[in-house]
Structures are given as C-alpha cells and as structure tokens.
Design a protein that fits this description.
two-stranded antiparallel sheet, about 15% strand, three-stranded antiparallel beta sheet, about 140 residues
C-alpha cells in the first residue's frame, strides 16, 4: 500500500510505500524525511494510493533499455561522481535504510567479496603443473 503526501519544500506529490516500515523518503527537489507508519502525523494531508499494480512493472530488459537511452556521454563524469556519493551516503546511513535495501547491499557486498577471492585464487593460486615438473597423463 502506498501513501501520497505533498513535499513540504516544493509541494510536489511524493508517493512511497507504508508497508515497508520506517523508511527515508526523498523528493526530487532534494528534501527528505523519515516516514514512520506508526506516527499519526504522517497521515495528515495525505491520501492512500490503492491502484498500484505489480503486473505492469517493466522487465529487466525494458528497464536497462530505458536507462541506456537516457545516458548522456557529456554528463558521464558527473553521473559517476553522483553515483559514488550516493553509494557513500547509503553506506553511511545503512541502519536507516529499509530492510530490503539493506539485504540488497549485503548481497552485492558478498558477491563482490566472493568474486575477488575467486579472482585472487585464479591469479595467485596453485599452478596447473606440479612443482617437481612431472606431468601425469
């Protein structure tokens, strides 16, 4: 279930889930706040959005295609720096993130560590030829 509330800074409508627990909500203008579903003040001047349909979500291919269409080569360094700062911000505020985001970051970190261990093993691990030089057929 989603809640639609006006941003106090720019008066745009911000839509966010309320069934995920306490989450950080950020408007496109940059204003952000913690949305706690147990706090009654959150529902003041807000309305529920019950029309959300998971079936109309685009697939991975459509999502990647849309992202690639929006890539501007001239802004790539700015985008890279913004992305790195976003990652830094998420890691600094890990405890405030929703549980799903925490799990996603943890899984990505484990995959990266496993890939680095595998790469290290392949590059610096044991060789295919025994030390005495003999080859078994």
């Amino acid at each position: 279930m989603f809640l639609i509330k006006e941003c106090p800074s720019c008066s745009r409508r911000v839509r966010f889930p309320i069934d995920k627990g306490k989450i950080r909500v950020r408007c496109t203008c940059g204003y952000d706040f913690i949305a706690d579903p147990d706090e009654p003040a959150l529902y003041k001047n807000a309305r529920f959005d019950l029309r959300h349909d998971e079936k109309n979500k685009p697939g991975l291919y459509q999502h990647l295609r849309k992202r690639l269409e929006r890539v501007d080569i001239g802004k790539t360094p700015e985008t890279l720096i913004t992305g790195l700062l976003s990652i830094k911000y998420k890691l600094q505020n890990f405890r405030l993130l929703p549980a799903a985001e925490q799990r996603r970051i943890t899984v990505i970190a484990v995959i990266i560590i496993l890939a680095l261990v595998l790469l290290g093993y392949l590059l610096f691990g044991g060789s295919a030829v025994p030390e005495d030089g003999s080859i078994f057929l």
